[in-house]
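Hey, I'm writing a tutorial for new members on how sequence and structure tokens pair up, and I'd like a real worked example in the thread rather than a made-up one. If someone can provide the structure for the chain below, I'll link this post from the tutorial.
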Amino acid sequence: MRSMGPASSLGPGAGPLWFSTRRLRPSPVLETYWRFACERQRVFFRRVLGQGPPWTADPILRSYRFTNVYRASDRVSQHLIANVIPGSSGSAADLFFRTILFKTFNRVGTWELLTARLGEPHVEDFDVERYDRALTAALASGERLYSAAYVMPTPGFGLRGKHANHLRLLRSMLADELPERLAEARSMKDAYHQLVRYPSIGPFLAFQYVIDLNYGDLLDFGEMDFVVAGPGAVDGISRCFVDLGGLPPEDVIRATAEMAAAEFERLGLPFLSLWSRPLQLIDCQNLFCEVGKYARVAHPDVRGRSGRTRIKQRYRHDPAPVRQSYPASWGIVPRLDWEPLTTLRGG
């Protein structure tokens, strides 16, 4: 199979791009963005089909860790969708509590630890001191509580221990009846603004929480409604474009999502969607972050806003089967006999 490799030019027909009345000037990394999306999604489906490694000939993808093209396909999101949300009692408070408790640590191991020591987490049984003691004991025994996926600032409740402060933040949200207010939100942006006002929850984290809550029944908005560009995405955008024409990064993400089908066709790339679900704003946001990392090796001459030149996380094989659980409202049927997957069978 052909390696994706570094892009050297955008090729014919890939000059300046227009979004509304703004002119964007792409760099060679933008073509890599589309090639990366195509190849990383093929890796995902090869694993879904039960094929063994290596799933790609691309040396960078084989050496370093990159998230899935569709955010909902990642391991932590899959655990949230398949285990955390369905275990809720169904009330707005319990849906919120279980989702935010899980995503605060963003680590399956921490959720399983709490479940093993305290029983299935539910808002009715939430006792801050009890949870604090369990997590403090786990930390003292060498357990890692937080994922390294993104930075989780400590809320300013003045307590010793990051987790103790986060537990009190969660209690404060529940006391404010935030779950009930979120259930009445009129848009994803409205829900976002209700979350971002809490201590330590900055714009990017608030957006991530909204996406997580939207997987369940508490919220019901389309993933093309709203997006916030995280620091990694901003860095990726700075590598993909020489000039943004004055557009904010969120509009660049929207322009990218809207041009995706045409760009795959122009480049002759056989992109395999998520069982016919097109790329959404959150997916394109994540892709900019991942391509920003990929470009550090593939395009060392293109310096992004972060200035980083190395990829930290090496790829480590996880033999666990790939899950395929998605929100019911998406209407996805993850069939292995889906016709487009025939291109991947046999190697």
